[in-house]
Amino acid sequence: MRVIAAVGSLAVLGLAACGSTTTAGSPASSNPGGPSASTPAATGTLAVRTTSLGPVLVDARGRTVYLLTADTPGHSSCASSCLSYWPAVPPGASTPTSLPGITATIGTTATMAGGKALTAGGWPLYTFVQDSKPGDVTGQGMKSFGGTWYAVSPAGKAVTTAPSSSGGVRGGY
After folding, report:
1. Is there a contact between 74 and 161 (Cβ–Cβ < 8 Å)?
2. Is the sign of the CA dihedral 55, 60, 64, 69 positive or negative?
3. Lowest-pLDDT choice from 4-18, 30-44, 85-99, 129-143
4. Are 65 and 57 in contact, with CB atoms under 8 Å apart?
């Protein structure tokens, strides 16, 4: 039985290795017809993924990264209740100031709850709890916590367009 379980585990790992990810900075055309993604190596890293909004920043798990218009560069206004819906993207042990495919300067800032958040172009970065898988952009354009939430471009700017497929924008909290 152990041999069968080990062979099954290897088969699953082999299939997982056949995914359609590309490294940050690779052309999106390397995967025609589907989203192109980079897989960040560890917590505290960012990458670029093509979604229904176009290219956006993603966190270490491949989740869309958002900014809040109520924030200002270098300052997070998202407090405890906000952070329960919009977790800050945590920095890793060391935070590079630049990453392949990302033109925004990468940094960190303090959150109102006493933690740290990664920044792109100075903007504090967050994910959204209702984005259940990489490529989801359900937080796009949501109005809550004093501002509007937008996905972040590789240049560190708000992506203000609506998703190209229906159902991507939901109500606020």
Report:
1. no
2. negative
3. 4-18
4. yes
Q: Which two tokens stand for residue 162?
A: 């609506």
Rounded to whole angstroms, how far apart are CA atoms 173 and 161? 21
**Whose CA is closest to 97, among 126, 122, 79, 130?**
122
> Please, which residues have CB within 8 angstroms of residue 117's CB and are 6 or more apart in sequence?
76, 88, 89, 90, 91, 108, 109, 110, 111, 124, 125, 126
Q: Which residues contact 74 (CB under 8 A, 6 or more apart)?
A: 109, 119, 122
Residue whose structure tokens are 């039985």: 1
Q: How many whole angstroms separate alpha carbon 106 and alpha carbon 96?
A: 7
